[in-house]
Design a protein that fits this description.
The chain is α/β, with parallel strands linked by helices and 495 residues long. The protein is built from 17 helices and 16 strands. The chain folds into two domains: 4-199, Cobalamin-binding domain (Rossmann fold), CATH 3.40.50; 212-432, tm_1862 like domain (pyruvate-formate lyase- activating enzyme, Alpha-Beta Horseshoe), CATH 3.80.30. The longest helix is centred in the last third of the chain and has 26 residues, at 435-460. The model is unreliable at 490-495 (pLDDT under 50). The structure holds iron/sulfur cluster. Iron/sulfur cluster (SF4) is lined by residues 224, 226-228, 231, 233-234, 267, 305, 335, 348, 351.
Length: 495
Amino acid sequence: MAEVLLTADRTLMSNYHNNEFLGFGTCAPPNFLPEWFYSFLFFPPIRESKGIPAAAPYGLRKIEAQLLKAGFDVLTVSPDHIEDYITDAKVLGIHTMDPFGLGPASSTLAAIFKKEPYLAKYFQMLLSNPAIKKAKKNGLKVIVGGPGAWQFKYRPKFVEEHGIDCIIEGEAEKVVGKFFRDALEGKELPKYYEVNVSEAPALEEIPDIVNPSINGLIEIGRGCCRGCEFCNVTLRPLRWYPLEKIKREITLNITSGKISGCCLHAEDVMLYGSRNTRPNEEKLIKLHEYVVKSNNGGLSWSHCSLAAVASNPQLFAKVAEIILQKQPWWGAEIGIETGSRKLARKIMPAKAHPFKAEEWPEVVKTGMGLMHDNRLVPACTLIVGLPEETEDDIIKTMELVDDLKHVRSLIVPLFFVPLGRLKQRDWFKRAELTNLHKQLLLQCVEHDFHWVDDLLDLSFRDKWYGRFLREFYRGFAGIAKRKVRQIEQPLVLNG
Ligand code: SF4
């Protein structure tokens, strides 16, 4: 039995029916669907054998690879089978994404529905597992990390009550070995460790994953050069993986026999291999030709920027042609954030680059139009309640959403969460929603409602549960509209 166990909660140990977008369902609170049915539709448990999951979140696989490389005896286990392995373990590492539902999507839904989202509920269930509690009494150390690590600063009581010994925030490759070693040797651990930029690993220090990742997700690079004020990623240096490294990880996933598709992960897949904000044609085409040739399970992108698409329509069309040889569409998450030129210049001055920040609404319309024509389906985010946002800014965003009504897409408004260089600012709260905000929220629900049938048809044409997803979405959108309308207006006092 292994001395180091790794795991993540049930909402993360799922392949979301091979559709990463369905994972957003974990941000919703318990609702009118029975929990067992909801979890089946949105986050069915990953296949496993004797408690060992067939695949695990990519970030967890990276830490697993780093610890194995450093000589630890490590095993990644399903959260439903912790008790089968924990007796002999000395350290438990837990990967988190949004452990308290404070991320933009879940906190927005929690504010509207006034209920804790599923992902927070399942994270707490994992930490409350009696087997973990018992092992803690026998000296087990618990170390937590992952993209959701920042949230623990807001929950010090939870950290104490659940005996979390150490929280690591940031790219952990260069520090994780030391902390796990110290934990094994019973040495003191820092309660909260923020990895600084000088500790970020260089490309050659990032190990390849050694076991399959969920939905074949693999990183093609880290960091982002656009510098948006509200974003954590922007604080990290930009690094693109060489194609050979990417090929090795794809091969690992495919030869495992457990994974067929591939999701390319980067903050802007269109910029793969580039040194600035202009796509590198040769590298992008080579990457896609390889990925399409090497797998039969479909390809998706985690994120891409509208500016990179709009800056080179011919190249985007070429990439689309390669991808569409084997599938009818593909998806990516896209940040629109605002329709206001003034706000764009202030808080995301390089998001439109190589165009000017003032041209942002035109960049969005051009990029979205190209995506529609080339069958990339974007799940777009808007930020509601950015610091210094005015009524005029909200109106500009509403005008932009109106201009996008013919674009096959989802547009999701998210309440501002203080991250990146804006982490000292205040959270946007439900009580601050104005009438204009409410109109914007309703406008987005209407937009998504209009396109959802089309999207579900594309995604789940052959699946019997596609009908349920459609009905769920209709019911959920209806309730969301009612809840938004019910939000009372704040009392505005003049003078
Ligand atoms: S473009 Fe996206 S990833 Fe890059 S800094 Fe802006 S929000 Fe962050």
